[in-house]
Write a structure and sequence with these properties.
mainly alpha, 89% helix, 0% strand, elongated
């Protein structure tokens, strides 16, 4: 699996997690659910966005290295 494919997969599973969370919020609507979302999910989303950006940069660098070696 390529580096870029891993980044795409990370985005996909994160979307799946958010869909599941939306369903959970239909039943769990108290202060703790808001705290959980703020403390964990929002931080996770920011980290995933950063990771995907870094993965894309690494993929470009690896492609350049491969092309330079050919």
């Amino acid at each position: 699996m390529s580096t870029r494919a891993n980044g795409t997969r990370l985005q996909g599973v994160t979307r799946e997690l958010l869909q599941q969370w939306q369903g959970t919020k239909d039943y769990w609507r108290d202060a703790k659910s808001h705290e959980f979302e703020r403390q964990y999910l929002q931080e996770l989303l920011a980290s995933v966005d950063s990771a995907v950006t870094t993965i894309e940069q690494v993929d470009k660098l690896l492609t350049k290295i491969k092309n330079d070696c050919e």
